[in-house]
Amino acid sequence: SGFWSYDPAFLATAACESKITYIDGDKGQLFYRGYPIEQLAEHSSHLEGAYALLNGELPTKAQKEEFETAIRYHTMVHDQFLSFFKGFRRDSHPMAMLAGAVSAMAAFYPEAFDFKNAEHRKIAIIRLIAKMPTIVAMCYRYGQGLPFMYPRNDLDYSSNFLYMMFATPCEPYVPNPVIAKAFDRILLLHADHEQNASTSTVRLAGSSGTHPFAAIAAGVSCLWGPAHGGANEAVLKMLNEIGDESRVDVFMQGVKDKKYRLMGFGHRVYKNMDPRASIMRKTCYEVLDVLGKHDDPLFKLAMKLEKIALEDSYFIEKKLYPNVDFYSGIIQRAIGIPTEMFTAIFALARTVGWLAQWQEMIEDPDLKIGRPRQLYTGYAARDYVAVADRK
Ligand code: CMC
User: Fold this and answer.
1) Is the C-beta atom of 264 inside 6 A of ligand 1?
2) I need a surface site. Which of 29, 41, 76, 103 has the fewest CB within 10 A?
């Protein structure tokens, strides 16, 4: 009963009120709690951004220390988790492992189900932000047959993640500060993006009152797709498939003939420029400078694609600009992160946004379960036919 409208893919439907993130798609602007993303990328860090997204304000010095200490305290996963991981095939996609592992967190922390209790809610959020780097690194190490590295709490959030990815028990790994900062910026820029597909999934799943880690696991699953978080992986696959600068023109013709899309281009909301892409582009050059990788053939190929697309009327008319994932994939590859890990790292970053949005929804006293309507296009009522009489 009541009035409702048909809006497939939610092109024109706001499903919630939110105070967390604001995007002005036409101007190409993004704000976390009112703070422009450019200023945060320049001066802040992923954890500071996380605090603001979760609490509405940037932390004071004391709040920052308290938050970071709490995160450090919870970086280890339950020892039983090691056995849990060993049930996966070694060649599992990291996102398949990650979705399973985040779901399993609900089994290890049943008390988080009592999320109406503010203390339980807070600790559940801290736990997940603290353990995601450990779990994501485990997804990588397990696939490689490498031993899991325990977190190092003397390192900052991003350096610790890179340590767990690349160190071995016999060879200590100290991340280069420029690389660690670039990685931290990738996390910060991906931390929230208002009601995107995975965040909407988390809200819808969470609206039933399910365990918070189960709701976040639903977000991980949604993020996996190439139209969303899988885009940075798809960018690298695309570059590898093109293979050589001499094949760019043929490839671009295929895009215009709509045989396939130019991955890392276009955005549902940004129809001017993705502000995150401009920051990532600059960071990309910084990282390649430090690593001396400007001559990397894949990077040169990417820059050629970018140049052609920015000058081509097909892309200009359709308002297709590079998005954040066009560059973040190139940076991650330069750092040595394998392509199949890119989406898992996006999930690591977006965990903050998912949790902030879930928390905002749960704290709303008027929360109702989400329940879209449909436009039924199937058969009208008809009689059951016995199996012997069916044609
Ligand atoms: N390459 C070529 N043509 C494209 C592309 C592209 N990447 N993206 C959109 N178009 C064309 C599309 O064919 C359509 O043309 P027409 O009007 O002639 O039918 C027009 O542009 C509008 O496309 P749409 O699919 O209706 O637009 P959308 O808002 O539904 O899609 C998108 C947004 C991001 C899914 C899409 O641009 C896309 O598939 N991009 C490639 C994947 C990608 O990079 N995704 C990452 C998004 S940013 C990270 C994130 O938020 O997760």
Assistant:
1) yes
2) 76
